[in-house]
Amino acid sequence: MKFDEAFSLRGEIALITGGGTGIGLAMARAMHGAGAKVVLVGRREAELQAAVASLGGGAHAFTHDVTDFAGAAGLVERVTRDVGPVTCLVNNAGIHLKKPAVDTTPEEFQAVLNTHVVGAHALTRAVAPGMMARGHGSILFTGSMASIFGIPLVIAYTAAKSAMVGLVKGYSTELAGHGVRVNCIAPGWIATEMSRRALDGDPARKAKIFGRTPMGDMGEPEDIGWAAVYLASPAAKFVTGVTLPVDGGVSVGF
């Protein structure tokens, strides 16, 4: 296999949840650049359309709330009809909750799990049968450092991202024999608009993050995008069930 073929996504159709902004859009941009058609999924129509316009031809938008579990199959059917069969699913949509663990209500805890875990499972089980029938597919999850080490004030998020790693392990063993690979990317601290807003007002937290990151800086959204391209590409055809930290060394640093 030639180099340009190994990392090409030509002929692939990638459905990316939470694809309108931030890391989701960065993954969409990288996959689109590698030759894939990309389908951006989210709740906000205007945001999605702006993202599609920035990407150009081969990009599509579908509004859907991942917590509409019963609607997952219908979304996949619409995408298949209007764009083509989904060959790569990126479970990226998520919500955040910053709150002390003892103050986090069961209802709040469940809401975070519903988005990150149950919503991802609903979409995965909706696309998997088609991938299995075709003998080809890649499913990616956006994980977190919170599944690798403890981070205070995000107990529901930590539980959700840890459960996501379990989904990756379980799905990868069930689907590997059908030509479908399942992997996870665990971003470190990435310089998105959201993270910039949070850290610009909290210099102590910013210093702590930089201090424990061996590379001494935050990553860029495109760092996650290109990792997603690799894991979805033929170059990673023998890679499944892994969680890949893209974190500047923070998960192994001191």
UniProtKB/TrEMBL annotation:
<keyword id="KW-0812">Transmembrane</keyword>
<comment type="similarity">
    <text>Belongs to the short-chain dehydrogenases/reductases (SDR) family.</text>
</comment>
<keyword id="KW-1133">Transmembrane helix</keyword>
<feature type="transmembrane region" description="Helical">
    <location>
        <begin position="139"/>
        <end position="160"/>
    </location>
</feature>
<keyword id="KW-0472">Membrane</keyword>
<protein>
    <submittedName>
        <fullName>SDR family oxidoreductase</fullName>
    </submittedName>
</protein>
<dbReference type="InterPro" id="IPR036291">
    <property type="entry name" value="NAD(P)-bd_dom_sf"/>
</dbReference>
<feature type="domain" description="Ketoreductase">
    <location>
        <begin position="12"/>
        <end position="192"/>
    </location>
</feature>
<dbReference type="InterPro" id="IPR020904">
    <property type="entry name" value="Sc_DH/Rdtase_CS"/>
</dbReference>
<dbReference type="GO" id="GO:0016491">
    <property type="term" value="F:oxidoreductase activity"/>
</dbReference>
<dbReference type="InterPro" id="IPR057326">
    <property type="entry name" value="KR_dom"/>
</dbReference>
<dbReference type="InterPro" id="IPR002347">
    <property type="entry name" value="SDR_fam"/>
</dbReference>
<dbReference type="Pfam" id="PF13561">
    <property type="entry name" value="adh_short_C2"/>
</dbReference>
<keyword id="KW-0560">Oxidoreductase</keyword>
